[in-house]
Amino acid sequence: ARRDGGARTQRFKLSILEDVRTRVELEADLRLAIERNEFLLYFQPKVEWPSGRLVGFEALLRWRHPVKGMISPDLFIPLAEANGMIVPLGRWVMREACSTVAAWLRQGLSPVPVSVNVSPVQLVEDDIDELLRPLADFAVPLDLIEIELTESAMMDVIQQNRGLIAALKASNLRIAIDDFGTGHSSLGSLRRLPIDIFKIDRSFVQDTGHSNEAREIVTMIVAMARALALDVVVEGVETQEQADFLLAQGAEIMQGYLFSPPAGLETATGWLQRHQN
Ligand code: C2E
Ligand code: CA
Ligand code: CA
Ligand code: CA
Question: Which atom of ligand 1 has the smallest separation from the CA of 90?
Fold first, then answer.
């Protein structure tokens, strides 16, 4: 038994070493990836249910690693946040989103708003002027870019950057609280924040089929949004049953695999072309 345990410990240590090595390698690669042009944006449509009308896009970062292939942001964003790379990376994302919208405008399309995920680390480092500089550089109207901040990030950042609330308010930028419902903000604190949109976390949506509690949480969030005069977007909608339930609650703007997974620029441009009128 003792030997077995030892072998297990040994294997365990090796797997930790593997993890550490992957992490170190990824981190080194990450530093070079911007220069090497390995990042790209995918776009996931936000649609109005049940009309199917396109009302927005969320920009989602992808890393095309030369050896490891497509790497999920869930893997490299935490690394980038830990080593500070998220600041240049986040700037790249905003520039790329603005440059895409500018290209659509040049093609004579009328774009829908594109929302950009912003890391709390970026907002502690950069001020709002810095964040919004690409809008001016690419002459993108303010109503075509939104930002998504997670609920917990929003609370953290406000602790560390006291001027932020006023700056965000003054900027008139539309702000969505991402993964809403997973943090623990009070109604009182939410009321003071310059928020425009609640984005309901997909965990609730996915449980609505079997959990009464999840259904009640969704109902409550929609009621809260109404009380605060905010819009609601629901993420992670995968089935028509979920979509119909959400609609019955008064939430008609949705995003999820039921409509489309995130897709590359060409596909997104195609959706935009088909939705012109
Ligand atoms: P998020 O902001 O909550 O983005 C939604 C995630 O859910 C995306 O994963 C999307 O592909 C996925 N998703 C969309 N519809 C469905 C669905 O119907 N079912 C399921 N199961 N999943 C769905 P993705 O693209 O892998 O991004 C993961 C996370 O990485 C994002 O979560 C966001 O927190 C972060 N992220 C992505 N791009 C950026 C970025 O440019 N900057 C920063 N700071 N974070 C980013
Ligand atoms: Ca998001
Ligand atoms: Ca989200
Ligand atoms: Ca989420």
Answer: 42
